[in-house]
Amino acid sequence: MRKYSEETKKKLIEMSCNKCGKKISVENGIINEGMFTVAFGWGYFSEKDGQIHNFDLCEKCYDEYTKTFLIPVDVEERNEIV
Question: pLDDT, tens digit, for every residue of 10-24?
Answer without folding.
Answer: 888 889 999 999 999
